[in-house]
Amino acid sequence: MRPPHQLPIGARPRQARSRETRERFYEATLDRFAAEGVEEARVQDIVDDAGGSWGAYHHYFPRKEDVLLERAAREVRDRLRPLADAAIADRRVSIHKTLEKLFVSMMHSELPKAVHGAVLREINANPLRFAAMLDEGQVPIVGIVGMLLAEGQERGEVRDDADPYSLGAVLAGGTVFPVMQTAFGPVMPGLEGVVQPPDPAAAVRRTFEITWRAVAA
Questions:
Q1: Which of 4, 44, 83, 159 has its CA 20 to 30 A from that of 60?
Q2: pTM over the 0.70 mark
Q3: How far is CA 92 from CA 58, 126, 147, 151, in A?
Q4: Angstrom distance (rounded) from CA 77 to CA 156
């Protein structure tokens, strides 16, 4: 089997009937993930639930895990990008607080904890595939963070001795990724004794405030 980055991106239909079919597959997949787990969910069961065919499913989602990336893409479109755009448009809004809110919002989801953790891991494992699945005009999360940090540099909130994307790597690498690893498991080798935070959002707030000192002006 070819690695994920070499597989074609699933079709995004324009006709209403085809969009409805794709949406049924999407919802049925998330339901199975919630009930059985991502690895255990079988595509045939998902197809049966949605009332479609195996071929149609793979036409829209070449990998069942692509549904996780689709979920993340909708979060970018509906929540994360609007949050960033509003902060950039209104100079009264703190870039510091906006970035904190963005990272905290990534920890919240209506999905079961295990499925949401799988979404975060899939973004991290397949960033190029995730970027390719975004709607036209959208940028991945690292791009949104970079946009906000660039705006922060213009306003004097963020240090200007490094490019915003390097600063974003520091900020996200010290905030979201460690919390993601410890809060959503599975526990990495060597971290078996680390207590998983009961509230990932609170953990993000704490680690963000510590890490922000590395990028603040």
A1: 83
A2: yes
A3: 46, 35, 17, 12
A4: 28
